[in-house]
């Protein structure tokens, strides 16, 4: 439960930021359609029922004098009661007459341009500076993130301690989803791969195959619009973990050390590329996306050789380097003392590398 007074303060601060953008662009209204921006501006509200959709059953329209939820009669009362904090008005129209919403937006804009996160029908995109500001999380957002990361990691630890070789990948994924839902967390993504499929596929959607002697479980866990991503491995038997997991941990450490305020996301990618080269697995970086900035999307900005995004304190990151059927993935927050691991669970086996605890494979008998 988010404290209502703190939530109101957060919303007021964000509305002021959006109205600065409106004035700076000479626009009459700012229209937020996406589930990501809806969660951001409402300090944790949700407008989507189908979690695979980028947008949901409501939008937010910001003008100089109003912040209005645009929705229909189906969703209006639930959103007012359960999702949207104080500070917003509502414009509700019949679901079968979407033209009424468009007329309302045009009137609210007063003939001036309309800015939007997902522009349509002549609308203009949001200024890049506004997107950059969304990536820098407030103190309240960081606290919500810490709670989410901690509980998602606890769910992961719980499930993999219960896993058995005869479980299917689907059983493992189902146990993971149940552990997240039980904590009030949406399982936005749950991947599971067993012994045979681990070396074959980087993004293994679960099947009914038994996991066998080793397995991977991946979460992208969402709550209040924020995403915590993590991956862990379990194996069964004595000394069953791969010998080269330390090589991957050292490779990752090179990339994490490059995450500095004032640097660029491309610098992190280049550091990882060099680390892959030194580990003699140079081509592995081309096999899969390495992750990047996270927050209100699982991947807000993906790290590539040309990702020029400026890194700032308050940003969150989820990288996923890997090779040979292994990968590492946690969600970090960049603060004044460097990276804080939001998905660290002290109950999970870990290795201290450069003062940072990194997860090892869980070895079960």
Helix and strand arrangement:
Blueprint: H1 4-25, E1 29-34, H2 35-41, E2 55-62, E3 67-72, H3 76-83, E4 89-93, H4 99-109, E5 114-116, E6 124-125, H5 128-135, H6 139-162, H7 169-182, E7 186-193, E8 214-223, E9 226-236, H8 245-257, H9 265-278, E10 291-294, E11 301-302, E12 316-319, E13 322-323, E14 326-327, E15 330-335, E16 338-341, E17 350-353, E18 356-359, E19 362-364
Parallel strand pairs: 1-5, 3-4, 5-6, 9-19
Antiparallel strand pairs: 1-2, 2-3, 7-8, 8-9, 10-11, 10-12, 12-15, 13-14, 15-16, 17-18
Describe this structure in words.
The chain has 365 residues and is of the alpha+beta class. The chain has two domains: 132 residues, Creatinase/prolidase N-terminal domain (Creatine Amidinohydrolase, Chain A, domain 1), CATH 3.40.350.10; 226 residues, Creatinase/methionine aminopeptidase superfamily (Creatine Amidinohydrolase), CATH 3.90.230.10. It is built from nine helices and 19 strands. Strands 4-3-2-1-5-6 form a six-stranded mixed beta sheet. Strands 11-10-12-15-16 form a five-stranded antiparallel beta sheet, with no helix packed on it. Strands 7-8-9-19 form a four-stranded mixed beta sheet, covered by helices on one side. The mean pLDDT is 96.
């Amino acid at each position: 439960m988010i404290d209502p007074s703190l939530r109101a303060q957060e919303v007021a601060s964000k509305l002021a930021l959006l109205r600065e953008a409106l004035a700076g662009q000479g626009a009459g209204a700012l229209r937020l359609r996406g589930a990501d921006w809806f969660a951001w501006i409402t300090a944790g509200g949700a407008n989507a029922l189908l979690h695979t959709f980028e947008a949901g059953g409501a939008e937010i329209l910001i003008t100089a004098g109003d912040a209005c939820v645009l929705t229909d009669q189906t969703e209006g009362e639930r959103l007012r009661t359960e999702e949207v904090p104080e500070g917003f008005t509502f414009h509700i129209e019949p679901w079968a007459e979407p033209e009424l919403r468009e007329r309302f937006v045009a009137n609210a804009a007063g003939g001036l341009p309309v800015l939007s996160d997902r522009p349509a029908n002549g609308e203009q995109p949001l200024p890049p500076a506004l997107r950059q500001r969304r990536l820098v999380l407030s103190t309240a957002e960081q606290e919500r993130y810490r709670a989410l990361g901690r509980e998602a990691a606890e769910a992961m630890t719980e499930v993999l301690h219960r896993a058995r070789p005869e479980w299917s990948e689907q059983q493992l994924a189902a146990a993971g989803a149940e552990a997240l839902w039980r904590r009030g967390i949406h399982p936005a993504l749950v991947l599971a791969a067993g012994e045979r499929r681990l070396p074959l596929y980087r993004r293994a959607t679960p099947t009914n195959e038994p996991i066998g002697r080793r397995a991977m479980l991946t979460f992208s866990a969402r709550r209040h619009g924020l995403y915590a991503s993590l991956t862990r491995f379990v194996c069964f038997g004595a000394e069953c973990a791969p010998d080269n997991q330390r090589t991957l941990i050292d490779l990752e450490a090179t990339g994490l050390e490059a995450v500095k305020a004032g640097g660029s996301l491309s610098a992190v990618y280049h550091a990882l590329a060099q680390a892959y080269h030194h580990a003699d697995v140079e081509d592995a970086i081309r096999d899969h996306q390495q992750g990047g900035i996270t927050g209100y999307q699982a991947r807000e900005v993906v790290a590539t050789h040309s990702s020029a995004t400026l890194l700032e304190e308050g940003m969150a990151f989820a990288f996923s380097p890997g090779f040979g059927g292994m990968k590492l993935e946690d969600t970090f927050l960049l603060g004044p003392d460097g990276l804080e691991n939001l998905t660290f669970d002290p109950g999970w086996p870990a290795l201290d590398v450069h003062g940072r605890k990194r997860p090892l494979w869980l070895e079960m008998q």
